[in-house]
Amino acid sequence: LASGAVNMSMSSIHIAARHGPSHPLRALRPTGPTRRHYKSPIARVASPSSSSSASPSSASEEEVSSSTSDQIQAPLDSGSHSHAEHRENLADMSMEELMADPRASLSAAGLEDGPPRFWCPIDTKPPATNDDDDDDRPLLIYIPGLDGSGFAAMRQWRSISAAFQLECLTIPASDRTSALNLAKIIASRVATAKREQPNRSVCLLGESMGGLLALLAASEAARNVDRLYLANPASSFDRAPIAAVAPSFPIFPEPLYEALPLVLAPVLIDPVKSTRRVIARTVNDGEAMTSADDVDLNALLTSDPGAVADALLTVLTGFQRTLIECLPKATLAHRLEILRDGCAALDDAALARIQCKTLVLAGDSDLLLPSEEEATRLKQALPNCVTRTYSGVSHAILQDPSVDFSRVVQEYSCYPSLPARRRRRRNKPTHKNNNEPLRRFDNWLPPREEDLAEAKQFLDPQRRLHSPVFLSQHADGRVVRGLGAVPPLNSEKSSGNKPVLFVGNHQLLAGDLGQLIDGLHANTGCWVRGLAHPFVVGGAGAAGGNAGPGGAAGGGSFLRRFGAVPVSGRSLVSLLSNGEPCLLFPGGVREAYKLKNEEYKLLWPEKPEFVRAANRHGALIVPFAAVGAEDCLDLVLDTSEVRNLPDFLGGEARRRADSVRGPRMGGAAEAQLAGESFLSPVAVPNGKLERWYFFFGSPVDMSETGEFAHATEDADIASAAYAEVKRRCQHGLDYLLRERSNDPFQSFLPRVAYEQMYGKSAPTFPLR
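Now predict its structure.
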């Protein structure tokens, strides 16, 4: 309800600012001979009725349910243009323009009346997918709240379409389908999607009332729903205070009903945030500011109180008009009946049938529903459920600028795995097994500005203290400052470069990891995908736990934002097959949690699995070495000493570490035998602000033209390649430990004095 209203009112305001009040639909509804150029944004429609002209108000609920059919129809406004041109036209159209008059948009697409149906707002394939390829992205079906339009998730459409095929359910205002029959319609659409593409995952995203319907549909079609996403679900409506007073709203006199949205506005939306958004979109002749957070309302109240008052009035009047148009009295009465009946039907038995992985998003400032408490209840009731609570976010959660749905799905490991697909032979190289490699991590989105700003708060002070030096070595042995000798990184799949795998040493507690990844990005322009212990990126981190090795604030979810994935052979193969640069620490936790007297020692396993994976995909392995961070810590108690502490001191930590499954071996007990444990040592800073150094050696070519071309088939060649990579890493360590003593700026005071005086990084030792 609130989401759709905020979207519609905000959109009308923005269009008026850009085009003037007389042209609210200039881009969306051109007149005369130009009309065919602007296609309907509706890409396809799936209707539960074979006749879209029949009104459900004149048919019984049984008729609506029994006539369910999920046949995909052709685009409603086909015109004479290609799909590519249609997508280009849509890309040029702002979401605000699309949302300026949603009812008119739905009417033009034939969705304003008739039965509930499914439609696709953005019909795009990922850039790497050719038109003749099967699109194996998961299907995401969005189920709307009380407004029923399907437009409430508009802010999320672009990012969702990068990882999912998107469909929205529209429930016209005239429709009177019951809660259970709506759930059956959704379940029928899910079943049809599974029949059409059995290997494709199908996911449901329900917001508010749609969250309740999504739960009912997931219970109805439990075997076919792969992921369930809920945003402030209305499954708590029967326990909310609003449930006692809402039935009286439809019987209000007309003037009082029209004023009701103004009274409910502070409950449904955040007027302060909405006012900031209006001002941000209207300043500088309609050009949007960087963020609504840049708007200082206190300063504006002093300098121009009239502008703030006008913006607030615009928010409230737009909100009022939209709610009245979307929810006539009879429609609101029916939607409240859906909420009551749906909550009654969603009993413990219905919840027990839902076995798929579920992610619940809740705003802790939702004044309409007890969403935070409901998220906790669902986490306890559902067998495979995780929750994310947003501070300061109200009921319209998907419209809040701080919420990025696709990103939180990634961070909480709730994105379904993509299936392996057969390679097409035409114009494509093939491997001897003719299988196209896995694409599990194609959906990763690079860090946003907010992510970079958060990382900057952590990395900048560290950079000023340690002034990292990056060195690289050419094939002829020449060492240069920077990463000019590192092979081109294959960030674009069409570049033709060989995949690159960086392999090196962990320092104690891996405190230099952030500088390493940031330095690689700063020098190459590419984000390197790190392979980390599953406990860090998929265990505690996924639930918002503490950071593990790596020194990065925010734990696993923070690392996943910067491309980290759980380390495994499957993950490495997936990334290399996509041509993405990878970062691997063979020593893993054992090396990050090294024992006393193991400073700068390579503690690698014996099995050369990563060498075989690199050979299979023709990759270049770049050995690297890092020193400096380990000198800044004193190891008070190593892992073995912590393990021997009395139970009242270290017992709980031991039990927690022993429960962690190792990435390479069958379980924690076997991992302990190999010396690998997730039991953290006790280390303290010693006050030495030594300089940090990173050395990238000449690559080991694992392609068909390289020295170790047959490592996949020949165990001796694989072992030789593994030994060569390890030898070059050790050479890099020896080189840095020897040469850094010749750096006049290795110590903190002369280094910081130079950098303060000249405003640039201090030079280092002579390169040879």
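The chain has a mean pLDDT of 76.
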